[in-house]
Amino acid sequence: MASEKEVSNGVEWRIKIADGSSERLVPEANPASRLLLGLKSFVVGLALKVWKFLQKAWDLGVDDPRKVIHCLKVGTALAVVSLFYYTRPLYEGVGKNAAMWAIMTVVVVFENSVGATLYKSLNRVCGTFLAGFFALGVHSVASQSGQRFEPIIVGASVFLLASAATFSRFIPSVKARFDYGAMIFILTFSLVSVSGYREDKLFELAHHRISTIIIGTSLCIIISMLICPIWAGQELYTLTTRNMDKLATSLDGCVEEYFKDSGSVVESNKECHKKLQGYKCVLISKAAEESMANFARWEPGHGPFNFRHPWQQYLKIGSSMRSCAYCLEALNGCINSENQAPEYIKKHLNNSSLKVSSNSSSVIRELEITIKTMKKSSNIHSLVGEMNSAVQELQNDLKSLPKLFNPPSIPEADTPENKKIEPISRTMVKMPLMEIVPLLTLASLLIEIATRISGIVDAVEELENLAKFKRASNDKC
Amino acid sequence: MASEKEVSNGVEWRIKIADGSSERLVPEANPASRLLLGLKSFVVGLALKVWKFLQKAWDLGVDDPRKVIHCLKVGTALAVVSLFYYTRPLYEGVGKNAAMWAIMTVVVVFENSVGATLYKSLNRVCGTFLAGFFALGVHSVASQSGQRFEPIIVGASVFLLASAATFSRFIPSVKARFDYGAMIFILTFSLVSVSGYREDKLFELAHHRISTIIIGTSLCIIISMLICPIWAGQELYTLTTRNMDKLATSLDGCVEEYFKDSGSVVESNKECHKKLQGYKCVLISKAAEESMANFARWEPGHGPFNFRHPWQQYLKIGSSMRSCAYCLEALNGCINSENQAPEYIKKHLNNSSLKVSSNSSSVIRELEITIKTMKKSSNIHSLVGEMNSAVQELQNDLKSLPKLFNPPSIPEADTPENKKIEPISRTMVKMPLMEIVPLLTLASLLIEIATRISGIVDAVEELENLAKFKRASNDKC
Predict the structure, then answer these.
(1) Which of A28, A317, B151, B250 could crosslink A459 through cysteines, CB 3.0-4.6 Å?
(2) Which of B72, B208, B434, B446 to mutate to test the interface with A (most CBs of A within 10 A)?
(3) How large is the ipTM?
C-alpha cells in the first residue's frame, strides 16, 4: 500500500502474484529520470501558475489603465530622484545620506490618488518638522546635564514621546487625519535624538532630512497632480453617482423580475442577473467611501469642486443609500421565496408596485443627476410627490385586496362589476393567506424603501446647501 | 452692524441715542487690552479643547487598557534598540548607519497585533532580501558595461522594477499578503542599486541593512509575542462570537418589542434600545474581519488555535451573519412603521413569532458556544429542527389567519371553538388588510431570517470540519 502513495501521478502497471498480493511494474525505475519527470511537472505547473497570474494582472491593467499610468508615474518619480544622486553638484549640496531620504520619501509617499499623496506628504513634512524641533530641545537639555545623565534623558524622552504618539494613533480623530504623521514623528524624533548623542552636526542632519523630504514630497505632489491626476474627491463623487445608478437599476429590475410572466423567466440571462445584484456594490462600499472622503479633504479645488467641498456629506448619502440597499436585500430574499402568489393576485398589485419601484428609481436617478451636474433639481419635489402618491396607490390596492377574499355579503353590491369578481372570489375563499405573504412583504418593503429614499433626498439636499449648488437653468418655478 | 460682528464673545453694553440708533459702551477701548482679552479667550478655548481631547484619550485607555500596554511596548522596543547606538561595541559592529535602520524597522514594523507585526516583519525581511539580490545582479551587469551605460542601466532597471512592483500591489492576492513587502522591495532596490554607483562597499551596505533589519524585526516579534500579546486570530474569534451574541439578542429583542403590550412601551429604556441595535455592529464589521483574517494567517499556533487554523472561514461566517442582519434591519423598519396591526390579530401570531425568534436565537447562541468551546455541538441539529418546526407553526398560523377575515361559510365547522371566533371575525370582515401588512412582513422576514440562519449553521459546520473540532463531551448520540 505504501508503494501506491509514492507514485501518485502517471499510469501504473501492476501484476498479481499467486499469494494474492500485487506488485508494481515500473518501466524505468532509475531515480534520476523520475526526479527529472517530477521537476518537469513542477516547472510546468509553476509556469502555468505564473501565466495565470500574468493574465490576471493584464486584465487588471486593461480594466483600469489608470493603474498602469500610476505605476509609470512612480517609476518616473524614482528615476528623477535618482538624478540627485547621479548629479555630482546636487549630491554634494544635500549631504551624503540625503539622496536616500529623497528616495525613501518618494517610495513611501507616492500614493494612487492626489489626496492620499498630499495627506502623506504633509504628514511627513509636519511630523518631521515637529519631531526635529522636539528632538533639538531634548538634546539641548540633555547635553547640559552631563555625560552621565545624557543617555538616560534621551532614552526616557524617546520612551515617553514614542508611547504617547503611538497612543494618539488610536484616537479616531487623529487616526483619520494624522496617523502617518504620528508614525513619522516617532521615527524622526528617535533618529534625531539618538543620533544627537553621537553626531556632532545634529542641526545639519535635521536640516538635510527636512530639505530632502521637502524635495521628495514636492516631486511626488507635482507628478501626481500634473500627470493624469487621480483625485480622491472625484473618485468618491463617481462612486456615489455610480452606486445611485446601480441602486435604481436593481430596484427596478428586482420588482420587474418578480412581476414578469413566469413564461419569460428563460429570458433572464447573466447580464440581467448582474444588473439585479448591483445593490450589493452599495452594501460593500462603506470602507472605500470613508478612505476616499478622508483623502479628499486634503485636495485643493479641482474640476467642479472647491477646496472645502463637503466630502463628509457624501458619507451620509452613502449610508442612507445603504439603508435602502438593506431593504432591497431582504426584498430579493422574498422574490426567491418558494411561496409565490397566484398570477391573478399578483396582477392586482402589479401596476401599483411597478409604479412605486419606477417612481422610486426615478427619484434616485434625479438625485444622481443633481450630484452629477451639481445643480439643484427643479423637479425633485414633484418626483418625490409622485413616488408618495404611488405609495398611496399601492396602499389603496392593498386595502382593496380583502375584497378578493371576501365574497360581498351585502346584496346591494350586486353590480355587474361585482358579478365578475364573484366567481373568482368564491374560488379564493379557501386560498391560504400564506401564498400572498411574499407579495405583501414585497409591497411592504417597497413602501419602506420609498420612505428610506426620502432619507437620501434629505441627505442630497443637505449637500446642495453645503456645497451651494446653483439652480438648474431649465428651472420652471 | 459691522461693530457687532467684531465683538462676538463677551457681554456688551449699549446705549440708545435720541435718533434711534444705539452705540456700544466699551469699558476699556485700548487695543492692547482687547488683544489681551482675545488672547485669553483663545487660550481658554484651546485649553478646553485640549482637556476634552485628553479626556477622550483617557476614556479610550480605560476602555481598552491593552492599547496603553501596546504603546508602552513600542516605547520599550525603541528604548532597547537605542542601546545598539549607545553601546560602543555593538555600534562599531554593525556600521555607522545601521542603528538608524534598526530604529526605523521598529517604528514601522511594530503593530498592534502579533499577526500584523509578523506580516510586516516577514515582508520587510523578504522584500529587503529579494531586492538586495536583484540590485546586486543589476549592479554587476551595469559595472561591466562601462562608465557611460552604467547610470542608464541602473536608472532603467529602477524605473522598470519599481513600476512592476507598484503594479503588483494592485493585484488583490498580492495586496492581501505582500503589499508591504512590495513597497520595501521598491525601496531597497532603489537604494541599493543607486548607492551602488557611488558606494564601493555595496555588498557591505546590503549586508548591514539586512542584519539590522533582522535585529529590529526579531526584537519587535519577541516583544509583541511575549509581553501581553494581542493575537489577530483571537481578536477575530472574539469579534465573531460577540457578533453572534449581539445578533441573537437583537433578534429576540426586536420581536419581543413588537409584540409587547403597548402599555409597557414606557419601560423601553436606553440600555434596551442599545441592545436592539446590536445587529448594526454585525453590519459594519466586514472591514475589521477581513484585516484580522489577513493578519491571523501569519500567526503561529496560540491558545486553542493551530498554525493553519482556517481563519478565512470566519469571513464566510461573518458574511452569512451579515445577510441575516440585513433582514433584521428591514424588520426593524417594519416595527417602527405607522401601520400597526390591532392587538387581537397580533395575538394570533404572537406565540408562533416569538417561538421562531427565540428558537432562531437559540440556534445562533448554540453556534456561538460551538465556536467558543471549539467543540462540535451535539444538539445543533435538534435546535435547527425546533427552529424549522417553529417556522412551520408560524406558517400554519398565517394560513389560519384568513379564517379571522372570512366568516365560516360551511355549517359543519360549527364547533364550540368556532363559535368563539365567530363574533370576532364578524367585526373583522371590513378590516383593511393594510393594517396587518407590517405584521405579515414581520412574519415573512422572520421566516427569511430562519432560512439565512441555516446559512450560518452551514458555515459553522464547515469550520468544524476544517478546524477538526472534537465532539462535545456531553454527547448523547
Answers:
(1) A317
(2) B434
(3) 0.79
